Amino acid sequence: ASLVSSRQLHLSSPSLSIPRSVYTAPSRTVACTQIARGTGVRAFDVTQPGGLIVAGGDDGALDVYETHGTHRVRLEGHLGDITACVFFPSGQVVLSGATDMQIKIWSACDGTNPVTLVGHTGAITDLCIIGVGKRVVSAAKDGRVKVWECGTSSCLRTYEVSVDAVNAIWYDESALVAACEDGRVVVIEPAEQAIKAVFGKKGEPPMRSVAYDARNCLVIGGRADGVVCVWDMDNPDDMKLSFRRGNASVSAIRLVSQSTEPRICVGTEDAKSA
Asked: Among 102, 166, 212, 250, which lies 20 to 30 A Cα-Cα from 222?
């Protein structure tokens, strides 16, 4: 094998009837920032459009970095492993959850922790921020989903979703969607403050991730056995589509494009995405 240093490759094969052609490699470069944490990274988030990174691990602490790699501040106060973290829309405030059953709000500038939300009886599994951040939503292994008022540090309402863990949540103005360990996806209508629909059945493989396409009214759940399930919001009893790329648990689902032809990006625990 030899190293090709030129950006252009000249290709031809008369015997295969392939005419002479030129392939030009992309010239765009991508900056890569490495962050080293002694205990690894269990959760992270990046501000939009991308000025700061927050990462948390098994030591119960989070670190805020500039995207070029400079460490800004350390956030210490949790008593268990960090399981979720997300920036508020301002990009200067961080919301975090951990196995200590606590939810904390931090300043990404000086590391202060003005608000701690307590009420779950199981490890926090996922977090969502509503709008500009006056309210947040949390899910936990106690099977509950809670809506919090940040200004008063109070729980506005609690949804008893499952007797098992709620592994992931997705918040949209029209729906709060929860992925449950018991194999179901539960949809809550925020305006009515009640369960609107249930997808899947108890006893099926655990749901580990979830997404909701409001424009196309699609509910998407990712299971522990690698299967991605797609339902029509108005027809919970009839699965619209299911597919599987492998047997690894589906750890994350993101909607790449919410259009007439939605695209789904899936991440799995075998370190692959599709």
From this structure: 102
Phi, psi torsion values for 15, nearest 5 degrees: -65, -25
Instruction: Report pLDDT for 134.
Output: 95
Residue 33 vs residues 49, 75, 145: alpha-carbon distances, Å? 16, 20, 35
DSSP output for 174-222:
TEEEEEETTS-EEEEETTTTEEEEEES-TTSSPEEEEEEETTTTEEEEE
CA contacts within 13 A on the Cβ side of 206 = 18
Q: Cβ contacts of residue 65 below 8 Å, gap of 6+? A: 33, 35, 52, 53, 54, 55, 71, 72
- The structure's pTM equals 0.82
Residue with tokens 């991308």: 50
Strand order in the sheet with 250-257: 250-257, 263-268, 272-273
Please answer whether residues 75 and 62 qualify as being in contact, where contact means their C-beta atoms are separated by less than 8 angstroms: yes
**CB distance 223 to 180 below 8 Å:** no
